Amino acid sequence: MTDTRTHLLIVGGGPAGTQAATTAAMKGARVTLVEKDIVGGAAHLWDCIPSKTMAASALRRTSVRNAVKLGLVNDPGHVDPRNLAVRIEEITSDINRNWLELLDSQDVDMILGKGSFTGPNEAVVATEGGERVIHFDKAMISTGSAPRVPAWAPPVGDRVLTTRHCYDLEAVPEHIVIIGSGVTGVEFTHIFESMGASVSLVVSRQQILPHRDPEVAAVLEEDFIERGVRLVIGARAEAIDVGNGGVAVHCDDGRTIDGSHALLAVGSIPLTEGLGLDEAGVEADDGHVKVDEYQRTSASHIYAAGDVTGQMLLSSVASMQGRKIARHALNLPVEPLDYSKVAEAIFTEPEIASVGLGDVDAAAQGRKVRTIKVPFAANARSVLQHFTRGFVKVTTDPATGVVLGGTIVGHRASELIGVIALAVKAGLTAHTLVETLMVHPSMTEAISDAAE
Ligand SMILES: Cc1cc2nc3c(=O)[nH]c(=O)nc-3n(C[C@H](O)[C@H](O)[C@H](O)COP(=O)(O)OP(=O)(O)OC[C@H]3O[C@@H](n4cnc5c(N)ncnc54)[C@H](O)[C@@H]3O)c2cc1C
């Protein structure tokens, strides 16, 4: 057993952990990063990177399918999941190698193994070469989350999948029944439909994306229906039978949906089991580590960031929390993260992106706002590219004209939203957006049109 002393111990090397490690190391701190699987975390191995690699192929195939409307005669071809799996593996390995080189160049002490706390200032890491004991001044928990598998689901991996099983499939599923119509459910609906699968989407509420603006959900629902996706609205899956080379998904309203595969897209659970939270004096609520606005846990020298806290489950948020923790742990000035200004996106086609205060949330809060909506059908670039589905909504403060938020549903919405995100962060007025001369013809003109 070897003993190590460190200033900042980080358990979990996803976006939160790696960002904290590089920020703290750059400031000269002695940092130890413990990771049990792969540096880059679930974000790189199973979540953001592989799913967006698949979405890139899906988008390309959807575009080729629609190219006939642009006067091209074409054959959309087909997607070979084996080739896609190789591409995902190459991209993941590249990113992993880059991160390892960066951490190494900054003298971060990397330990491959599973970490757990044995006391308020001590942790142990089970490595292939035996146990290592780490004595730390400060620590950060960034162990992430894993897909939730409900108690009623049969064993996963063959016919019943989680997202983690989707990246090295032998063949495109003939008919996949996707359970859950949140962000993950709709992204994989887009991916699998584009790859040629028949898709049924089980929607427990009356609309897909249940907590979002109904106008946004309606655009995506219309697109899905046009593409032949079967929306099973108002049905909650409660059992799955596997047999006869397929699955039967039973819903609480008596409907049964037969398919070749089922995909569980019903949320995630925090990874805190066996982490020694009690030994460290760290409190959790339903597995999520409780934190204050500086990400400090109930043991104030131990921080937590990313999915394990159950705050906004986004890689971008996890990284920013990690960066802020590193600064706080080194007594450098830092401001708490403002969650109301985080830009986020859903990678369907059309994409959906939003930032700040939307009109639906404002109405729920009883706050008076001014919202203007401009459809992409009225935007020249969208029309000539044949990406007319969707709209831009910009919300402003009626008294000052300051931009409070925006929503974009449309092609490359995840890129376009950056303009509104900057306006929200910088407190710019709609007038500034209008006065900013955008390229013509471009989809960004729809943003200045909405601001006008
Ligand atoms: C399908 C899918 C797609 C997504 N796409 C996006 C997207 O496009 N954009 C976006 O912003 N977010 C996306 N997310 C969310 C994003 O993946 C997470 O918010 C992000 O990974 C959280 O980062 P993290 O650092 O908290 O944890 P993770 O990325 O989960 O990393 C945690 C790490 O801790 C390690 N670990 C766990 N326990 C231990 C232990 N005891 N000892 C040592 N190591 C340990 C794990 O092996 C893992 O590597 C997606 C999520 C899913 C499910």
Provide a descriptive summary of the structure in words:
The chain is of the alpha/beta class and 452 residues long. The protein has 13 helices and 24 strands. The strands form six sheets. Strands 1, 2, 3, 4, 5, 6 and 19 form a seven-stranded mixed beta sheet that branches. It has a five-stranded parallel beta sheet with strand order 8-15-9-10-11, with helices on one face. A five-stranded antiparallel beta sheet has the order 20-21-24-23-22. A hairpin with a 6-residue loop joins β23 and β24. α1 runs parallel beside α8. The longest helix has 25 residues. Bound molecules: flavin-adenine dinucleotide. Flavin-adenine dinucleotide (FAD) binds next to α1, β2, α2, α3 and β4.
Oligomer: single chain
Mean pLDDT: 95
Instruction: Give the N-terminus to C-terminus distance in angstroms.
Output: 67 Å
What level of helicity do the residues show? 25-40%
**Which ligands does the model contain, each kind named once?**
flavin-adenine dinucleotide
Query: Major β-sheet, in short?
Result: 7 strands, mixed
What overall form do the CA principal axes indicate?
globular
What is the helix tally?
Answer: 13
Specify the structural class.
alpha/beta
Q: What proportion strand?
A: 25-35%
**Strands, count:** 24
Low-confidence stretches: none
Cα radius of gyration in angstroms: 23 Å
